[in-house]
Amino acid sequence: MSDWRALARALAMQCLTQLDVQGPDFLPEMDAFIAEANVTSDSKSLAAELTRIAWNNKQVCDQYIADTVKHWQLQRIALIDRAILRLAIAELLYRTNVPIKVVLDQAIELAKKFSTAESPQFINGVLDAIAKKLQELGAAEPQVRTTEQTPGDKTTTSSETSDETSDTSMNPLDSDF
């Protein structure tokens, strides 16, 4: 059985990709797109939340990307990779109850499943540099940054947080939705 959070991230990545292509015209259709996915209601809820957080903070996420990949224009980064990076950066910044390792691992798994063979290494390098920068700025602790609730963010209990890291042996994205 796949982890519902990983499925939510995959669905959010798909929504962010649609938004990148269609722009805000996709927003009215996003809820229907998510509703049609063959995932649990918890996955659908989290996917909608993650998509909105990442899309509403796209400029901030894009600035972190631009500051990290200095020799690349954002438009030259593959569409899927941009969506994965925006999703992960939004989680690092605005869902601080999720451990950094989980955010990075899930982003790498998305890249393995949905992008090119080189993408996991690229995603890892960019996100690792951003996570280190956030830690240096004091915005993050090495494991779990804080349990404070951000606007639109559900408070996660310690058991939910540990569930995020409990099964790293299986690929949570193996099932289709």
Terminal CA distance reads 12 Å
Poorly predicted runs of 5 or more residues: 140-177
In DSSP terms (H or I, runs of 4 or more residues), the helix count works out at 8
Number of discrete domains: 1
Q: What oligomeric state do the depicted chains represent?
A: single chain
Query: Element order, helices and strands?
Result: HHHHHHHH
How does the overall form come out from the CA principal axes?
globular
> Total strand count, please?
0
Radius of gyration over C-alpha positions, nearest whole angstrom: 15 Å
In words, what does this structure look like?
With 177 residues, the protein is mainly alpha-helical. The protein has one domain: N-utilizing Substance Protein B Homolog, Chain A. The chain has helices at residues 4-22, 27-35, 41-56, 58-68, 79-94, 100-114, 119-136, 158-166. It is globular and about 40 Å long. The two termini are 12 Å apart. Residues 140-177 have low confidence and may be disordered.
